[in-house]
Write a structure and sequence with these properties.
about 675 residues, mainly alpha, Herpes Virus-1, 33 helices, 3 strands, about 65% helix
Length: about 675
């Protein structure tokens, strides 16, 4: 009954006891299993399938009495046939335990309801398995009381005759859900009374409960997409749409404190004892940003273990055991520890592009007609609340928009189509930090979609976004606004218009100079994008970007250093940029970065920057580089060991240095005649 989180819902991986198991060990395990199941008799734990669940728990309780008496009185004289029957009971009770866990799993109630046929079928099978095992149990050879034997016979008879059927309440809830889904297909808003009836039946009492359901359904949805089980996708997509609509429309407020508690907790204490080695993938020896567990129980980073399996290796790399399944189950506990460790040590981790992190490129189209209808109706509702609602309604609406747009392209497209962008820009001027922060976060998500970029630009949003970078009420809002400019700068027309705004580049440079890590990062990539337009080069230089970038070459964060070098490289492409870089005394620092860098891309940017400086700066730069022994050694190393591009550019710099040295020290030809060259033998 352990490791319940390492399996898919309604997969029941029970294991038969080994043939050589001793009767006392088997009985001890049976008693322990029964006690675990009986501990699940918690009032209100099972909103649905109560009749089947209560019957299963009742039978397990009676079996527990029988097992305890056998253990106390007669296990030493158990015949082999009795041990076989007890092993069958052990197998069936394990499966009942899994079933009960799944039926009580928080967040999975709608899925369990709509899979009632499968759930009830499993209960019938396991209860009949108990009946079969009890029928062949040789009671006459087991030394227990007559009352216990009668109990077993009665239980066997009841297990054969009990009816496990769908209750009327469950049936009504199922029919209501199907009716609502049909309304979604037609683009009709369902009656909220019907929705509330279903939620009450499932004991979904607040926004957070609803969000738990939605998170579970999305995980199942992307799991099936990843595994190629496309037949399940429309079904799961429709349930996702149903629950999303309920979360948006039914609940008027978000338990924001509870939402915050979902983030990694006790950052200051829970990882004090943690060694980073324990969070490294045994294969890649890197932090497991997307940890998954294989059938052996070992945890690896998803990308590494997938490559291992695809290469034909079907053994566990650590234990050497054969993998009974190639299924990869996300290890959320390890993921949470990695997040806490990275947050504590100020390490960035990328969102893993996996099924459980909502792979964005798989969300361009809706998963089914009902899902599309539900999302469009929900988005329309949110835009209405944002445009006409009071402060609390706007707070709720804008938070929902942020969650909707976070990693789903279809959701983003729906928000743009519903004219959410003008209203999001409108509320940027709000004095409520929560509204402003979430509005710019939604705009950031929408700026990742082509239609969102167009809507922001056409709605006159450029100036408003720059104002947020400069005057935003929260640091996060400023950082996200800079990121919006980065995505908009990917379109030539937009980056030209951004450059025309007098405050745009200076504001980004100021954020680069004084911002926190994320602010510096977003400002850097935005400036890098703007430099793709030649007319923006003089604006970046005049805004004082070069001294700031040069100072960042000593930053402790290597990614900031490499970003700074990349921007300087772009600036150095033009002669006026090279002149300003030389004036800032950047060459020595760039060389230091090149020599100390362990990043191939970082070295490539450095050597490319130095080559531009040599070409545009002439002998002054070349002679300075030639007097740096550490640089010369590094250039030779790049020629022999670096990437093709880095090696080629390093060779070009070496040629320039050698040509310069030859010009400074011309070869003196002595007037020696051929006949003077005599070798005298000693």
């Amino acid at each position: 009954m352990t490791h319940l989180t390492k399996r898919k819902i309604l997969s029941l991986p029970a294991v038969y006891p080994c043939e050589a198991i001793s009767p006392d060990t088997l009985l001890s395990s049976l008693i322990s299993l029964c006690h675990e199941i009986l501990a699940k008799r918690v009032p209100g734990m099972y909103p649905i399938h109560r009749q089947a669940i209560l019957e299963a728990i009742r039978e397990v309780g009676l079996l527990s009495i029988f097992f305890e008496e056998v253990y106390e009185c007669g296990f030493r004289r158990l015949p082999e046939s009795a041990v076989v029957c007890l092993s069958e009971l052990h197998f069936a009770i394990q499966k009942i335990g899994f079933l009960l866990h799944d039926c009580g799993q928080k967040g999975a109630q709608l899925w369990i309801l709509m899979r009632s046929d499968l759930v009830l079928s499993e209960f019938r099978v396991q209860i009949r398995s108990i009946a079969t095992a009890l029928d062949v149990l040789p009671l006459e050879f087991i030394d227990i009381s007559q009352e216990a034997k009668e109990l077993v016979r009665l239980l066997s008879m009841q297990a054969w005759t009990v009816e496990i059927e769908l209750s009327k309440c469950d049936d009504l809830a199922i029919r209501t859900v199907r009716s609502v889904l049909n309304q979604f297909k037609r683009g009709v808003n369902p009656d909220t009374v019907d929705l509330q009836r279903v939620l009450d039946h499932l004991q979904i009492q607040n926004w957070s409960d609803c969000d738990d359901e939605l998170s579970f359904l999305e995980q199942e949805l992307f799991s099936n997409i990843e595994d190629g089980h496309n037949n399940e996708v429309p079904f799961l997509g429709s349930l996702t749409g149903f629950m999303l609509y309920c979360r948006v429309v039914i609940f008027n407020s978000v338990e924001f404190k509870r939402v915050e508690r979902k983030e990694p907790m006790t950052r200051a204490t829970s990882i004090d004892w943690l060694s980073p080695d324990g969070l490294q993938c045994p294969i890649s020896l890197e932090l497991m940003t997307d940890p998954v567990t294989v059938s052996s129980g070992q945890t690896y980073d998803r990308a590494s273990i997938k490559r291992w399996i695809k290469s034909g290796c079907l053994t566990c790399p650590v234990t050497g055991k054969m993998l009974t399944s190639t299924e990869l189950l996300p290890n959320l506990s390890v993921r949470r520890l990695v997040e806490q460790y990275c947050h504590r040590n100020d390490i960035l981790i990328a969102e893993p592009s996996t099924k459980h992190r909502r792979t964005v490129d798989k969300t361009d189209i809706p998963f089914c007609v009902a899902s599309a209808g539900a999302i469009r109706l929900a988005v329309s509702f949110l835009v209405c609340k944002l445009s006409k609602g009071g402060t609390q309604e706007r707070r709720k609406a804008i938070y929902e928009m942020r969650k909707l747009s976070k990693s789903n392209n279809f959701h983003r497209a729906c928000l743009v189509e519903a004219d959410a962008v003008p209203w999001l820009l409108y509320v940027l001027s709000s004095s409520d930090p929560f509204i402003q922060d979430n509005a710019i976060a939604v705009l950031l998500n929408l700026s990742k979609h082509p239609s969102g970029q167009k809507a922001i630009f056409q709605s006159g949003g450029l100036g408003l976004i720059i104002d947020i970078i400069k005057y935003g009420l929260k640091v996060e809002a400023k950082q996200n606004a800079a990121a919006v400019l980065f995505y908009l700068s990917s379109v030539e027309e937009y980056r030209v218009e951004i450059g025309k705004i007098s405050e745009a580049v200076p504001t980004l440079v100021e954020l680069l100079r004084n911002g926190m890590y994320r602010g510096k990062k977003n400002a850097a990539v935005s400036l890098f994008g703007l430099l793709d337009s030649p007319e923006n080069h003089p604006k970046v230089i005049s805004a004082g970007a070069i001294p700031v970038l040069v100072s960042l070459l000593k930053c402790e964060r290597s990614d900031i250093v490499y970003d700074s070098v990349a921007i300087l490289e772009k600036i150095a492409e033009r002669p006026e940029g090279t002149i300003e870089i030389i004036r800032s005394a950047a060459i020595a620092r760039v060389v230091d970065v090149l020599v100390s860098s362990t990043s191939r891309s970082g070295k490539e940017h450095c050597v490319s920057l130095l080559l531009f400086l040599c070409k545009n700066g002439g002998d002054t730069v070349v002679s300075q580089l030639g007097r740096m022994p550490a640089l010369m050694a590094e250039l030779y190393r790049l020629v022999t060991e670096g990437t093709a591009d880095a090696g080629k550019k390093a060779r070009s710099i070496l040629d320039l240095i050698h040509n310069h040295n030859e010009a400074d020290y011309p070869v003196v030809v002595l007037p020696i005649q051929i006949h003077d060259r005599v070798i005298h033998a000693l």
